[in-house]
Amino acid sequence: MTTAITGATGQLGSLVITDLLERGVAPGEIVAIVRDSAKAASLDERGITVRVADYSDPAALRSALDGVDKLLLISSSEVGQRVAQHTNVIDAAEAAGVSLIAYTSVLKADTSGISLAPEHLATEERLAASTIPSVLLRNGWYWENYASALPQAIESGTLYGAAGDGRLAAASRADFAAAAAAVLTLDDQGGKTYELGGDERLTYAEFAKLIGEVAGKDVAYADLPENDYAAALAGAGLPQPVATMLAGADAGISRGELDTDSGDLQTLIGRPSTPVADIIKTAIA
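Structure tokens predicted for NAD(P)H dehydrogenase (Quinone) (285 residues):
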């Protein structure tokens, strides 16, 4: 049984491979699909098969998926190009005779109003039309997404955002990777949808308080209108599209779109999600 991971040298993909190995999957049964073989030297050294293919190169993708049974399609990082790129991967998987595709989507993709959701939903629809059974890993937000904001929040005593009183069921990247690895090692996953979120469903005010407790300083949350927060992020140096996306995600949090109490993550990984305080400690260390 051969399992392939796209984006295998990325932050999520590399963690999935580590988790698969820890679960006893033989290195020779893992195919790492990467854009740059130079970044995959450590995978090659561990006996993992490395194949080079870009999401935008159908021929290379078809070759990379030869002999693959299960495929983890980690969503592309190129927002705006994702549907075409993901379609290329699915087309190649169909041509290669892959038996299962697991896809990293976003929480509540079919109802979410955040800007990232439509491309994920379109990919889910393409998978539903495929001849290959698929399983949807609807990942919530990563707590690591806030790592770059922590020093400023601790220094100033203020965490800014536009999430109102909405709750955020985020989890660590490693937790989501463990869930993906679990699905890849289980049978009968075709047709399943997992809504994945952490145990600690925090408001930004609660998150700010926790940041302060870990750092030994008082940190409070300041809620801004979505447009004002986007402008502040752009003013801090983020590209305007990124600032708009992040502010829009906060608005989604205010509407409950990045919150879940499904328990799917915990069931898959067999434990509670990583404590948020531990993630904060690692980020500020």
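The beta strands are 3-6, 30-34, 49-52, 70-73, 100-106, 134-139, 158-161, 193-196, 220-223.
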